[in-house]
Amino acid sequence: MRPETEAELAAIIRGATAPLSLVGGGTRLRPGEGQGARLSTAGLRGITLYEPAALTLVARAGTPLAEVQAALAAEGQRLGFEPDEAEGSTIGGVIAANASGPRRVKDGAARDSLIGVRFVDGSGAVIANGGRVMKNVTGYDLVKLMAGSRGTLGVLTEVSLKTQPVSPASATLTLAGLAADRSVAAMTAALTGPWDVSGAGRLPSGETVLRLEGLAGSVAIRAESLAARLAVFGPVETTEGDAAFADLRQIGRDMAAAAGPGRAVWRIVCRPSQAAALVAQLPGPTALDWGGALIWAETHAEWVPDLPPGAIAARVHGGPGLSLSPMAPALAALNDGVRGRFDPRGILAGAG
What we know:
single chain, alpha+beta, five-stranded antiparallel beta sheet, about 30% helix, about 25% strand
């Protein structure tokens, strides 16, 4: 099913008698998702409002992410949350998954750039919340709730986003060969200092990379100062640009593409202080992002992580779908109550 208007989408949901699997471009589905009757938002496309001077953009959910990126680039702007890219990815899918790249450590997740939504809930009602420009935004709580809900609370039809100017200059500081604990310590030192770091990660090659952005003079001064601070961890190489972060942004997809038969890829979110111990138990290649708060890991398909308190893991490739996210009974009851209000018939099976 591929409705072309919001009204058609609402009618389909009102008439549904079995769970629907919601997809945009189908590029963010996790193992086990997308198994029911598919309801695609790809027909709901187009940028409906873009005000570069106000740093706001409104687009229908099925608009390709590449189209949004191109429109912003033409005005020297970008999405601050730096989502990963795949052919066919839609802006609605990005928001439904709360997909956020390395810049999250400085500018927040996708939900932090989201200022308004329109969506259809599980009863077929059309709901609008938030605003289309920053000056009249209201109802932030519901807007934030929709980001990352993966289509379990409603089908997004339109999203309003803050944008930001592309930085005039950037630089990457690289430390080679650090063990995971030393890498996390170096990233923590950089992120907790005055250098305004906009990305901090560790590549599967073992290189620890840190990004600085801004005016050229400011970047140069901060890079020199940060390199001096990090010298205790080993030699620091400084290069112009941020090519390493283009790689880091796509690392989850790259690891999934390279994983052979019988292999799986995990996405683990934890406290940075827990990252080194988790990496030590991982039986394959790993990468760190968000200063160590996000771990990408390739393992054999049957492996299951032993998580410390508060950590959350999801298998995003290979093997049956499995998510380890222990939830306290009170929180689980609250979660079920919210889903029951938005989707009383259990029609919305999730999205990607």
